[in-house]
Amino acid sequence: xxxxxxxxxxVVGLSVLGCGEQPEAGTDDGGxxxxxxxxxxxxxxxxxxxxxxxxxxxxDEGHGSVMGDARFDLETADLAVGxxxxxxxxxxxxxxxxxxxxxxxxxxxxxxxVQFSGPGFAxxxxxxxxxIKLASNDxxxxxDVFFADPAEYIRTxxxxxxQMADMFGNEQNMxxxxxxxxxxxxxxxxxxxxxxxxxxxxxxxxxxxxxMADPSFQESFQQGFMQxxxxxxxxxxxxxxxxxxxxxxxxxxxxxxxxxxxxxxGVEFSIxxxxxxxxxxxxxxxxxxxxxxASVWSAEENESHSIQVRGFGMTGAENLLPGxxxxxxxxxMFLQGMTQQMGAMQSDGQGRR
Length: 353
What we know:
Number of domains: 1
Number of helices: 9
Strand order of the largest sheet: 1-10-11-12-13-14-4-5-6-7-8-9-15
Distance between the termini: 42 Å
Helix content: 25-40%
Number of strands: 15
């Protein structure tokens, strides 16, 4: 995989997971990527796409705005027992299913057991729906910033590994991560042979928040991120992407896509480049997770890969881990043990100097 493709794939993830600095409105350095109203972006035949017209518009300064009136809407129907959605990749027969299988009161809140299952495995998360919605709203705002002008967002936040580290490690992004962790109350999984184990997440978010407040944590995070990024040739890939921004075409298009034999309406974000094409379709007509379709094509490998919905429904989910777990372990026990171990290693290292 080329470094450019690797970084391209990161861009889509960062649009959701990265909380970067918002570009100033009305800036134009002459290098903005072209935005067109052409809805004819090609994807593999198995995607079932049916493109509509693009919502590209121009702002008051005449710059291209990818979003227009359309937007990636992450808000799906409220969680309810019975919902399920199944995903497959390429032509593979194996699939992954996400479903809502039960409810349980936890700390005075009605929470939902969300199940992830596939060939030979099953795991469940007990989630607080209000917490999930809070985190989703924050990610929605971040996505709106990214899609308003992807090229300028990339220039502002992804110029080098230092900017990337700042994006991942800033206070807003850390808080968004903590919101997701707070929303997960218990993790339950099958150890094999019908033995069910559970991990109680109580106190984890508060523990991590305290660790993040330590200036040494931020310093270690920055150093670790930049070292790891450089080891994967990420810095070189970012430099290449910056020089290729003028050859990238960003589109934001209302569309319809086949999902499990049914047509659902949604919005597609795509990046086109002579070497790489990436697209993702979000539809809030789907339950649990709004991702309807995603694909990537590489000129170097001359092949494409895609993930698509194979089926979904509002009823009929099957609980694969019924009953109480044989054992419940506090996650804090692991975290405290790891912290003590790391402290001992640091003390030992200082003692040898």
